[in-house]
Amino acid sequence: MDVTTARERLESMLAELDRSIGVLRGDPVAVRDRSAADAGSDLTDADRAQAMLTVTTAQRRAVVDALKRLEAGAYGQCVDCGKPVPEGRLEARPEAARCVQCQSKQERRR
User: Distance between alpha carbon 26 and the CA centroid of its chain, in Å?
Assistant: First the structure.
C-alpha cells in the first residue's frame, strides 16, 4: 500500500474511532422511576459500553502508532523482526504493526 493511501485510510479510521469513543463516553441516561429490571438492564448496557470503549481505545492507539511509523518511514515493517508486513495484511488492517508470524507469537504470549 502506498504511503498516501495508508495515511488516508489511517486518518479516516482515527476520525471514525474518535466519533465512536465520543458516543461511548456519552453521559449516562438519568435514572428516574425505573424498575429493578431496568436497573439491571442499565448495568448490563454500561458493562457492554465499557468493554466496547476499551476495545475501541486500544484500536485507536494502534492507529496512532501506525501513523507515527508512517511519519518515521517505518510503516509496513514489522516492529519485532523488521521484515515487511505483507501487503494483504496492511490492506485488511492498515494499523498492523507486525508480520503474521510475529503477531501469532505475540498472541500466544497473552
Answer: 19
CA angle 109, 100, 84 (to 5 degrees): 125
CA dist 99 and 96 (Å) reads: 8
Instruction: Please state the pTM of the whole predicted model.
Output: 0.80
Residue 60 corresponds to which amino acid? Answer: R
pLDDT of 107 higher than 50: yes
In DSSP terms, which residues pair with 77 in a beta bridge? 84
Are 11 and 96 in contact by the 8 Å Cβ rule? The answer is no
Residue length, the chain?
Answer: 110
**84 DSSP β-pair partners:** 77
